[in-house]
Amino acid sequence: MAKRLEVLNMDLTYMQESLAFGYLVGDFEVSWKNLVWPLSSTVWVQLGIIGLLFSGLLFAAHHFRRRGIIRDNLSFLDGFAIFLGIAVALPRNSFGRYVFGMWIFHSYLTVTAYNSGLVSFLTTPYEKRILRTFKDLLDGGLEFGGGTFHREFYNDPSDPDMKRIYDRFKVFPINQALRLPTIHKIATGVLTSTVRVYNTDHRDNASNQLRMLEETAFTFHVPIYMRRGSPLTHGIHRYASHAIQSGFVDYWMRHYYRPASTFTTKTPSVLTVNHIRGILVLHSAGLVFSSIVFLGEIIYHKRSVGQH
What whole-number distance in Å separates Cα of residue 168 and Cα of residue 170? Predict the structure, then answer.
């Protein structure tokens, strides 16, 4: 290597590479919580606040009305029925009709936005295993290993996670370590460019993609090798610098690694029990709650009859 450095000039770099643990995508699943995913948590909180404001307006209209205004026996359950698309008797006074009109308009827009994204969340699977940090790798139960050079990077007694990785790191021959993620499903050191090329070649198979940890082992710059004293060195350095500064290299990398547009015949997705688990869970909870309320009404009615 020292003799090569005497001949080659590596002053100019054109690309940044990172070495980190890479692993093959795990199994996919459709979570039963997919019913709440079409709307973000912020939107759900806002809907709750708006529902409380609506209930407060109904309470104020019911208890603080002026004389001569028709009294309406409406409650929050009537507003919830409108939200679900169930017809209820509208208020008879002007204030109640105005409040209910705004609530109907708000409910229609919210339900339309929710239904427009519900089917995609019912049928879109998600990865069961997503590893981003060294701690995720240690707690994920996935084996990892590679070459001796990669293992020595984690020999840091001051960092508990790094030391645990070093102790559990399995050393493999270099020719075998490069194939660990795709053949043995073991996490090993991979380069950023390797992951990009592999995922581009397997873009039609989502279950055969590589992922990298966000915490990298180290980052380095890839140089342009030129022979020292070559008359072409100055010109290549100048034009390479212009290409890097103008963003051409980044554009070329994105263009090269972008998925190719293919025209394939898509088959319709069949809804299975896994897709509608959230609906079944919600329906079962509603049936249990309805049964409890029904039994409570029977017990309350019998006790009331017995007392009279």
Answer: 6
Q: Which residue has tokens 């021959």?
A: 173
Query: Which pLDDT belongs to residue 72?
Result: 63
Q: Is the pTM of this model over 0.70?
A: no
287: region left, alpha or beta (phi > 0 left; psi from -120 to 50 alpha): alpha
Judge residue 173's burial from the number of C-beta atoms within 10 Å of its C-beta, 0-12 exposed, 13-18 middle, 19 or more buried: exposed
165 and 102 both lie in a single domain: no
Per-residue model confidence as pLDDT tens digits over 212-258? 888 888 888 888 877 877 888 778 878 888 887 888 877 777 776 66
248-257 vs 233-245: helix axis angle to the nearest 10?
70
Of 193, 245, 198, 256, residue with least CA distance to 220: 193
Q: Is the dihedral of CA 71, 75, 76, 77 positive or negative?
A: negative
Give the Cβ contact number of residue 92 at 10 Å: 11
Report the domain count for the chain: 2
Greatest distance between any 2 Cα atoms in the chain:
112
Domain that holds residue 46: 37-118
Shared-domain flag, residues 157 and 241: yes
Contact 255, 174 (CB under 8 A): no
What pLDDT is attached to residue 249?
75
